[in-house]
Amino acid sequence: MVDVSQHELVPDHTVLDGDEIEGVLEEYNIKKTDLPKIKRTDPAMRDLEADVEVGDVVQVTRDSRTTDRAVVYRLVVE
Questions:
Q1: Higher pLDDT, 69 or 46
Q2: pLDDT exceeds cutoff 80 at 38
Q3: Pairing relation of β-strands 37-39 and 68-77?
Q4: Quick check: 15 and 51 in contact, CB under 8 A?
Q5: HSE-CB of 74 using CA atoms within 13 angstroms
Q6: Contact in structure between 66 and 73 (CB atoms under 8 Å)
Q7: What value does the mean pLDDT take over residues 57-67?
Q8: Which fold has domain 12-76?
Q9: 46 and 9 in contact (C-beta within 8 Å)?
Q10: What is the mean pLDDT of residues 40-65?
Q11: pLDDT of 29 higher than 80
Q12: What is the structure's pLDDT at 44?
């Protein structure tokens, strides 16, 4: 089986703690449920699966041609 989380095109996924989540929500003036969703079973989350629970927020950092790197946030759902 191929581990897609190790592929060079899969961006870095990091689970945020409570303080970081509050900072993101305040910065964008949104609620947690307003964030785009990502399934807990998403193949890119395989390495984080033991640490990720429904309701967590994941920071996805990907390469970008225009800004060097782009940071987006996803709410983990089942």
A1: 69
A2: yes
A3: parallel
A4: yes
A5: 22
A6: no
A7: 91
A8: Eukaryotic RPB6 RNA polymerase subunit (3.90.940)
A9: no
A10: 86
A11: yes
A12: 81
Q: Six-digit token pair at 16?
A: 């945020």
Q: What angle do CA 11, 23, 40 make, to 5 degrees?
A: 40
Please tell me the distance from the alpha carbon of residue 25 to that of residue 67, in angstroms, as a whole number: 22
Give the per-residue SS3 of the chain.
Answer: CCCHHHCCCCCEEEECCHHHHHHHHHHHCCCHHHCCEEECCCHHHHHHCCCCCCCCEEEEEEEECCCEEEEEEEEEEC
**How would you class 78 by CB atoms within 10 Å of its CB: exposed for 0-12, middle for 13-18, buried for 19 or more?**
exposed
